[in-house]
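re: ur question from earlier - yeah i can do the single chain one, its not a big deal. heres the input i used so u can compare w yours
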Amino acid sequence: MSFEAAVKAAPAPVCDAYRPGKQALKGEHRDLIRCRDTRRFTGSIDLEAALADDAQAANLWDYGIGVRLRGDSEHAIWVEVHPAATTEVSTFLRKLAWLQTWLRTETKALGALSQPSDEIETFVWIATEAGVHIRPGSPQARRLQQAGLRLPRQVLELR
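and the output i got, formated as C-alpha cells:
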C-alpha cells in the first residue's frame, strides 16, 4: 500500500492531512530531512496539527513521511523535532509510546508501513536548534537504545 493510500484510510481528521513530498512539514523543518533523490519522498502529514484537538495533545508526534525504498515499496518514517536534552528523554519516550499505540489501534494501514526495516529507521528524533545534549553511553542514551532508537541528531540524511 502507498503512504498516500494509508493516510487516506486513516480516521478523520488524519485522512485529510496528506500532502505530496515534504509539503506537510513546517518550513523550518523541511531542510532537516534530506535525501539526494527527493522523489523518494512520496508524501507527508503534520500529525500534530491534524490531531491538535485531541485530548492527548501533549503527547502528539510531529510528522509522518512516506519514503520509497528499493524495489518501489514504501515505508513510513516518523519524525519528532524536539529539544534533545537529557531531561527530555522521558517526554520523547511518552510521545513514542503514544504514536506506537495510535499506529497499532487507530490506523493499521500506516502501522503496516511503519514496521521495522533494515533499510531505513522508522522513528527519528531530530534536535531543535539548541543542539544535542545527550551523550553516547549516558543513562539517557541507554534508555533510547533499549527502546530501539538512535541518539537525536540535527539532520536526518536518507541514503
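The chain is about 30% helix and 25% strand. not sure if urs matches, ping me
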